[in-house]
Structures are given as structure tokens and as C-alpha cells.
Design a protein that fits this description.
- By secondary structure, the chain is α/β, with parallel strands linked by helices.
- It folds into 2 domains: 2-180 and 357-378, Rossmann fold, CATH 3.40.50; 184-354, Rossmann fold, CATH 3.40.50.2000.
- Helices cover 38% and strands 13% of the residues.
- The protein is built from 17 helices and 13 strands.
- The protein has helices at residues 12-21, 54-57, 75-81, 109-118, 132-139, 141-145, 156-165, 184-189, 219-226, 243-256, 271-278, 294-303, 315-321, 335-341, 344-354, 357-368, 373-378, and strands spanning 2-6, 28-32, 49-50, 65-69, 87-90, 150-152, 172-174, 206-209, 233-237, 262-265, 283-286, 306-309, 327-328.
- The strands form 2 sheets. A 7-stranded parallel β-sheet has the order 3-2-1-4-5-6-7. A 6-stranded parallel β-sheet has the order 10-9-8-11-12-13, with helices on one face.
- Helix 4 (109-118) crosses helix 10 (243-256) and helix 12 packs across helix 15 (344-354).
- It is globular.
- The protein starts with a strand and ends with a helix.
- It comes from Olivibacter jilunii.
Length: 379
């Protein structure tokens, strides 16, 4: 039996429904770390219990594998207090790049200044990182991370970063990805051969900038980089994220930019509605330094959109190594040239192959089956 420690997040339903489709539910128990009312999980029938009920989990050595979905700093003490046959850490991003235990450089110049205002600080650095409690935790961090057997992420450079920067982490790597709420083939059906885009004038093209109202998107710096690209519309999704940051971001944009090309998506949409909405745009821009909004990037590739990224994000060279044509955000002034060179069909094919149902099935059977011989039979 495997034990999963999860948060009340929207990823849970497609994840467990994938396990259900593969006949793997009976081998996996799900315990929610949140002890309040569930806000995002619909499949509450599959929840075994809550983390605050310590007696419910019992001796952790009775589980074949324990999976921690997002290793927050609060979990460190629990890891130290228990022993495991096999401990797995599923990296989310916030438990690595924005945690108070790793000081990852997130912000470019203009965003640093904005974050300082958001936090009412004179300097834009991670105060949580220097919190005395977390300084003490970091002192014992090596012992905590040495107990982890596997780091689970589909982003290999992310695993390498964790191994390099986290003291005591010697874990092996396993590929893992949460399910898209829509099958990749549904996104693929939205794909239209984009040869017509080459005939489209730049001032007729519309872009989506970032994935949320989270400062790591470096919105202001991105707008500075693309200000000479005469796009018809720049849409900034802010339906979730840091409310104070979003308010100050809008205020700053109003001060800096007087044109009406910049718009905001404030309304939270269902995934199916967002796909239809996203399909109205031609370009997706990510100016983050850490991996963020990867779902939007994959959607853009599959649906035949142009993708521009910050080259300081280690996902940029990784995606290019897969054969995907992704472009430096600083090259956006060369849109006309890029439109003649990009192969939208090839990008879509490559992304679909990377996220194929067969590949995900293979991955899940390997990780969550009671008998790994099932996995070996389909290799």
C-alpha cells in the first residue's frame, strides 16, 4: 500500500481519476494535509483522512511507498520523526524555488522593486529565508533530505538543480507529471495549421503574458522587453495569485503605459473555457526565471502558438533540446522573420509525443502499481 500526503488542490481530481482508470486506486491511500473544509477537491469519496489525525496514518514503515506532494517546510519535522521504506518527493515549484529553505533568484529589476512595495520592505530579498526558525531548520536540512529516496519531476534540470543546491539530498530521479484536465488529444484537436499566421501582420497578433498574478512572472520587466513589438493586444491573466501584487502591478502599468493594448483576465475560468479563450491568442510569453505556467506553454505548443521565454529559465534550453522551437523574449521584435521560420506542426507533434497518454500510463504504472511486474510487461 502507498500513502500520499496531498494539499486541497485542483490537481487531485485528474490525478486520482487517472489512477482509477488504470485500476490503481486500491493500492493508494490519500491523506489531505489541510484540516478545514475542502475547497478544490471534488472526489472527497477517495480521501482516506486528514493529516491532523496522527493516529490515522500510524507507523509509516507499513507503507511500501510514501509520496509527499509538495514538500513544504512544515513537513520537515514530520520526516525527521518517522522512518520509511521508500520516501518520494513530488516537486511543485513553490517547495523548491519560493520556499524559505532555498534562496532562488526569482525577480528581475522592475519586479524586485514592485515586490519590495508589496512586502513593505526596503530591500527585495527573501526575509523568510533568514527567519531564525528557518535558519535552524536549514541547519538540520541535510538529515531531512537524506531520507528522501526519489525526487519526482518530469523536468530533469529541476531535479539537477535540487541535487546541486540542497544539502543532503542524494535521491534518485523518477519522471512524474500530473494529468492535464483535458486529454492532450483534445488540445490537439484545437490545432489548426498555422501557415496563415505567416501572412498575419504583427499588429494583428495578440499575446498572453504570464499565467497568473504571481510576481515570479516578472510582468513589468516583460512589458519593458516587448514594448516595441506592435502587438494588437497583451493579455495578463491575474485571476489568481497575490492580490496586493496584482493591484500594485495594474497601478504601475497604468503609470507607465497609456495605450489600451494591455488587458487583464480577472475572471477564473474552468479549464475547458480557458482552452477556448486561450485559442483566440497567437503568442504565449513567459518571462519567469523559475519554471512556472508550464501548462500554458505545453498548450501553446500543442495548439500551434508561438512561445517566447526568458532565457535565464533553465526550461528554455531544455525545451529546445527536445526539438521545440521556443524563442528568446528579447527576439520578439523579429516576429516577422520568426513567423516565416517556425514549424508549428513540428512543435505540436513533439509536444503531443512528450505528453502522450501511453507515456503517462507507463509512468503511473511504474510508480503506483502494487506489482511493478505490470510495468515491466509493457516496457
Amino acid at each position: 500500500m502507498n500513502l500520499h500526503l496531498i494539499d486541497d488542490e485542483k490537481f487531485f481530481d485528474p490525478f486520482v481519476e487517472k489512477l482509477e482508470a488504470l485500476g490503481l486506486l486500491e493500492n493508494n491511500l490519500f491523506v489531505v494535509r489541510d484540516c478545514g473544509p475542502l475547497k478544490f477537491i471534488r472526489r472527497s469519496d477517495l480521501i482516506y483522512g486528514r493529516f491532523c489525525d496522527k493516529l490515522l496514518i500510524g507507523d509509516t514503515r507499513k507503507y511500501k511507498k510514501v509520496f509527499i506532494h509538495c514538500l513544504t517546510s512544515e513537513m520537515h519535522d514530520w520526516i525527521l520523526q518517522n522512518e520509511f521504506n521508500e520516501l518520494n518527493w513530488m516537486i511543485w515549484g513553490k517547495d523548491l524555488y519560493t520556499s524559505d529553505l532555498v534562496d532562488f533568484p526569482l525577480y528581475e529589476k522592475l519586479t524586485k522593486d514592485l515586490v519590495r512595495k508589496v512586502n513593505n520592505q526596503r530591500f527585495a530579498f527573501n526575509f523568510g529565508y533568514w527567519n531564525p526558525k528557518n535558519v535552524i531548520r536549514r541547519a538540520g536540512m541535510a538529515k531531512t533530505y537524506s531520507k528522501i529516496d526519489y525526487v519526482l519531476t518530469w523536468i530533469e534540470p529541476e531535479y539537477k538543480y535540487a541535487i546541486k543546491h540542497i544539502k543532503g539530498l542524494k535521491a534518485k530521479h523518477e519522471n512524474f507529471a500530473y494529468m492535464f484536465e483535458y486529454d492532450v488529444e483534445v488540445l490537439r484537436a484545437k490545432f489548426v495549421e498555422r501557415g496563415c499566421q505567416a501572412k498575419k501582420k504583427v499588429n494583428e497578433m495578440k499575446c498572453v503574458l504570464g499565467n497568473s498574478g504571481v510576481a515570479a512572472n516578472n510582468h513589468l520587466d516583460a512589458l519593458q522587453k516587448i514594448k516595441h513589438a506592435h502587438l494588437k493586444e497583451i493579455l495578463i491573466p491575474v485571476s489568481y495569485g497575490n492580490a496586493k501584487y496584482t493591484t500594485l502591478l495594474k497601478r504601475e502599468i497604468e503609470t507607465r503605459y497609456t495605450d489600451r493594448r494591455i488587458a487583464y483576465l480577472d475572471k477564473f475560468m474552468s479549464f475547458s473555457d480557458y482552452i477556448d479563450f486561450f485559442d483566440r491568442y497567437d503568442i504565449f510569453i513567459s518571462n519567469s526565471i523559475r519554471p512556472i505556467g508550464m501548462g500554458n506553454i505545453w498548450m501553446a505548443f500543442i495548439m500551434g502558438k508561438l512561445v517566447f521565454m526568458n532565457t535565464d529559465n533553465f526550461m528554455y534550453p531544455y525545451l529546445r533540446s527536445l526539438g521545440l522551437q521556443v524563442y528568446d523574449i528579447n527576439q520578439i521584435d523579429s516576429l516577422e522573420v520568426i513567423l516565416k521560420a517556425v514549424n508549428f506542426r513540428q512543435n505540436s507533434d513533439t509536444a503531443v509525443q512528450f505528453l502522450s497518454k501511453a507515456k503517462i500510463d507507463h509512468m503511473y504504472l511504474n510508480l503506483f502499481s502494487k506489482d511493478t511486474s505490470i510495468y515491466n510487461q509493457i516496457v
